[in-house]
Amino acid sequence: LLHALKRLGDTHPELQLVLIARPKPGGETELLMQRLGLTDRVRFVSDASHEAINQLYAESTVAVVPSLYEGFGLPAVEAMAAGIPLVSSDGGALAEVVAEGGALVPAGDADAMAAGIERVLDDADYAAALAARGLQRAHAHFCWSVCARDRKSTRLNSSHLVISYAVFCLK
User: Fold this and answer.
1) How far apart are CA 132 and CA 82, in angstroms?
2) Alpha-carbon distance 96 to 92, whole Å?
């Protein structure tokens, strides 16, 4: 993601990256930011409440999930449910979770990630359509009512207990 931000620097010098994470002091992330000259363009938010994360989504132009591997992809679902455009890698389960609800790029491909982000930034109609598709996907597949219905159906038809991930969706 940092390499993608660097590539976007010439065309979008105003672009700021907010990472919901806590870097290791003096670790690889901080060293890479320094090497790429990005320390003034990246802000870290850690230990954020749900309300703070929702506020960050509300203030964002695009959400990015750059994972090389993701077991489920709850951050992607949260972004879609927030109604903002999503650019996500296809790592792990993300391709299945995001599907048509976001722009999928190959995991680990900084050029593709930068291109996906840039398209959202430069094409307001595309960004709006992506946000609408993401919100629709979150409502259709990941709201509590859908998960509860699917879980009840699964429990009736199987001896396995299914644990569903979900987000609250306002209707």
Assistant:
1) 10
2) 9
Q: Say which residues have a Cβ less than 8 Å from residue 31's Cβ, sequence separation at least 6.
A: none
| Alpha carbons 20 and 63: distance in angstroms, whole number | 11
Cβ(22)–Cβ(15) below 8 Å: no
Q: Residue 154: what pLDDT?
A: 39
Beta carbons within 10 angstroms of residue 71's beta carbon: 10
pLDDT in tens, 10-66: 899 989 999 888 888 899 999 999 999 999 999 888 888 888 888 888 888 999 999
Q: Is the pLDDT of residue 74 over 90?
A: no
DSSP 169: -
Q: Whose CA is closest to 79, among 15, 69, 89? A: 89
Alpha-carbon gap, residue 72 to 163, rounded angstroms: 12
Q: Which string of b and e fits 88-111 if b means at least 16 CB within 10 Å?
A: bbbbbebeebbeebbbbbebebbe
